[in-house]
Each structure stands twice: as structure tokens, then as C-alpha cells.
């Protein structure tokens, strides 16, 4: 009997998926399998994965005939899995030592959902940006009727799919179709209906997130300003108060949210024309949103970096995003990769 299936959906990760597999495979034990679904990567992902899986009966690699998208591919990974539980692991992050043992131990209580905390490192994972993605000091339990409380506490962490360990039969009993293409289909599945056995949230990080390497980084404005809030606010049976605890309904209207996107290089005049201009909004709001988009990008990046460095020096993740922005002055003016 397979107790836990670690399910990875991957695409074009030949450069870094080996590190992920190296953090997982030594921890595999009886009753645990590893399943990798490859969305027809044109790079060397297949050969890299097979080099780790060769001769192992507890590891399976499935190459799809074409790219289906992250939501569809994780659904397929769960279908291919044989475990009672599925850990929806990412293809660029790392498990901490003994993470699988800890998760197996927590599954003895048979929850419907186990939410796994993580710390956050830079693109090379050498520096720690955030010690705990979810800043809690003790484990939290939620009963079957506490979906709203679960969403309020762990909604932000759950946007990271690697935090999800879910009963396979629960997942298969639900309809993921309404959430396909949202980038966060797993959240829709979790909150589609009540949990029979409840959920548990682990406070101690069991993963290390590689920050700044998301495949949809170039679409960050669309994802965080529209797709994520649309999914959260589309959840039925959840109060507006619980949804507000996760994200505003229309974050693109908020100056601070747009300012952050602008500084990261994710809100330009092109984004304004594509996403904001077609919307039915008042003239003053439109002028404000246009002014933010029209402000010189590189100058804005410099000003935000100066502000954060002196006013909020602990904002390491935001400073990293500013350095990685395509509007970083060293990148724009001197051609220096940062």
C-alpha cells in the first residue's frame, strides 16, 4: 500500500529539477512514491529526470504529448499517483531533511488536508529571505466546519502549491474544471466543499522555496492582480471577510499594489493598455492608474530601492525583486545581469 505520493508537474526545468530530486529521493521510504509529470518539455528535463529514476521502482516519470498547463498537469499527476495522500510538490524547490518522515507522522491522524509551511530563499537558495512563509509558531488544527478560518490563516501560503498534502480520494471526488488555467486550481479544489476530516497546518517549515524563478514571472501582473483574486472571490460558501483576509477583490485599484508591481517591472504602459484600459472605471481612477504606469520605469525602480533600503531594510524579498526587475538601472543602462 502506498501511503504518500509526491507529485511533481514540471516543464523546462532541466537546469534545476535535479536539485529538487536530490532533496526528495534520499528520503523515500516504504509506502512512499515519487511521480513526475512532464508537460512535453523541449529541453533536457526528460534525460535529467530519468538519470535519477533509473532502476528505481518507487519513482515514475510520465512525459505528456503536449503542454497542458500547471493546473491540468497536477490533476494528471494525482490520477497517475497510487498513494492515499498526494503531496503536490514543485519542481524547483527543496524538501528539508526528514520532511517526508514528518509528513507521514502527521498523516497518522488522517486529515483531509495537511498544509506544509516553508521558508523562502533566493534564486540560488543560498540566502534566506523569509524564515517562515506562514508566520505561526505552533501547529494549527481546523475542523470540518472551519473552512473560512483555514482560508483566513493559510490562504496566502496555499497559493504555493508545494504546501498541499491532500487525500487523493477527496481530490478525485471534486471537479477541478472551473479552476483550470487559473494557476491555482488546487485552492479551488480544496475549498470547493467541506472537509470531512478537517485540516492541519504545520508551523515548522518542511520545504525551502526558490523565490524569483516562477515560470509565470513575466505574467505576474495578470496572475496576482486578476487570476488569484478572481479565484479567491469566486469561492462559494466563503464569507467576504475570509476572502479579504487573503487578498482584496480588485487589487489593481490599489495604489500600493500597483506601485509594488511597477517597481518589480510588472506594470508598464503595455500592461495598462491590455488589462486596465478596457475596464469600466471612473475617470479619476483611470488617471491615477495611468499615471503609475506612465512614470519612468527605471527611475521608479531606483526610487523604490532607495526607499526600501533606508525605510524597510528587512524587506529582503522585495529588494530581490527590484534587483531582478528588467528595469534595474544596471541592467538597463550598463547591460549588467543582476
Q: Taking all residues together, what is the mean pLDDT? A: 92
Using the coordinates shown, work out and report the CATH topology of the largest domain.
Spore Coat Polysaccharide Biosynthesis Protein SpsA, Chain A
Distance between the termini: 48 Å
Backbone CA Rg: 21 Å
Helical segment tally?
15
Structural class of the helices, strands and pairings?
alpha/beta
Key descriptive features of the protein:
8-stranded mixed sheet; 2 domains; 338 residues; Spore Coat Polysaccharide Biosynthesis Protein SpsA, Chain A; 15% strand; alpha/beta; 15 helices; 12 strands; single chain; globular
How would you summarize the topology of this molecule?
Elements: E1 4-10, H1 17-24, E2 32-38, H2 45-53, E3 59-63, H3 70-80, E4 85-89, E5 94-95, H4 99-106, E6 113-115, E7 118-121, E8 128-130, E9 140-142, H5 147-158, E10 164-167, H6 168-172, H7 185-190, E11 199-201, E12 207-210, H8 220-233, H9 240-244, H10 255-263, H11 269-276, H12 283-294, H13 297-311, H14 316-324, H15 329-334
Parallel strand pairs: 1-2, 1-4, 2-3, 6-11, 7-12
Antiparallel strand pairs: 4-10, 5-12, 6-10, 7-8, 9-11
Helix pairs in contact: 1-2, 10-12, 11-12, 13-14
Task: Outline the structure in words.
The protein is of the alpha/beta class. It has helices at 17-24, 45-53, 70-80, 99-106, 147-158, 168-172, 185-190, 220-233, 240-244, 255-263, 269-276, 283-294, 297-311, 316-324, 329-334, and strands at residues 4-10, 32-38, 59-63, 85-89, 94-95, 113-115, 118-121, 128-130, 140-142, 164-167, 199-201, 207-210. The protein folds into two domains: 4-210, Spore Coat Polysaccharide Biosynthesis Protein SpsA, Chain A, CATH 3.90.550.10; 250-334, no CATH class. Strand 1 (4-10), helix 1 (17-24) and strand 2 (32-38) form a beta-alpha-beta unit. Helix 1 packs parallel to helix 2 and helix 11 (269-276) packs antiparallel against helix 12 (283-294). The longest helix is centred in the last third of the chain and has 15 residues, at 297-311. The protein is globular. The chain starts with a strand and ends with a helix.
